[in-house]
Every structure is written in structure tokens, then in C-alpha cells.
């Protein structure tokens, strides 16, 4: 498996689905099942983290004075540096 940090969301979800299918099949030795479960938990956390990052970025797009404005993550909406969409 590629390192979790190198996986994009789609790749992590695909690998997680493979792990779930393998575990659901039921004929996995206990040691391998534990290893797969641990991998699955890490992938699940990675996906959750990536979704949270996307959510924060989406929240940065707000409606202001009747216009949609985009601001970089962590920036304040006040000021002239906002980019109108």
C-alpha cells in the first residue's frame, strides 16, 4: 500500500473499500485481519481529515454585500484583498 500521506481522497477511499471487502469475505487469518483493520482505521482518519480540509475551504467562500467573495483559508473577509467571483 502507498503511504497514507501520498494518497489522495479517492485513492484512500478505494483502498478502504478493498480492505472492507477483504474483511467481509471472512476467510482472512486473524493476524492479517488485525493488520487490515489498522490500515482501514488510518485510511478512515485520512479521509476524514481531507474532508474537513475541503469543508474549511468551502466555508471561506461567503456571501458579502450581495456578491460571492472568495478569500484564502485563514484570511479575514474584511479589506480590499477579497477576490470577487
TrEMBL record:
Superkingdom of this protein's organism: Bacteria
Q: Which SUPFAM superfamilies match?
A: XseB-like (SSF116842)
Q: What is its EC number?
A: 3.1.11.6
> Is Cytoplasm set as a keyword in this record?
yes
| Catalyzed chemical reaction(s) | Exonucleolytic cleavage in either 5'- to 3'- or 3'- to 5'-direction to yield nucleoside 5'-phosphates
Under the heading Pfam families, the entry gives:
Exonuc_VII_S (PF02609)
Entry-linked InterPro entries: Exonuc_VII_S, Exonuc_VII_ssu_sf
Say which enzyme class the record assigns: hydrolase
Respond yes or no to whether keyword Cell membrane is given for this record: no
Location comes to:
Cytoplasm
Family listed: Belongs to the XseB family.
Looking up NCBIfam families in the UniProt record yields: xseB
Please describe the quaternary structure of this protein: Heterooligomer composed of large and small subunits.
**What name does this protein carry?**
Exodeoxyribonuclease 7 small subunit
Chain's gene name: xseB
Amino acid at each position: 500500500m502507498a503511504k497514507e500521506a501520498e494518497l489522495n481522497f479517492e485513492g484512500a477511499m478505494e483502498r478502504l473499500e478493498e480492505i472492507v471487502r477483504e474483511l467481509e469475505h471472512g476467510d482472512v487469518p486473524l493476524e492479517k485481519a488485525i493488520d487490515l483493520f489498522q490500515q482501514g482505521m488510518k485510511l478512515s482518519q485520512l479521509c476524514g481529515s481531507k474532508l474537513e480540509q475541503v469543508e474549511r475551504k468551502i466555508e471561506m467562500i461567503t456571501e458579502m454585500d450581495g456578491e460571492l467573495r472568495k478569500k484564502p483559508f485563514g484570511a479575514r473577509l474584511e479589506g480590499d484583498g477579497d477576490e470577487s467571483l
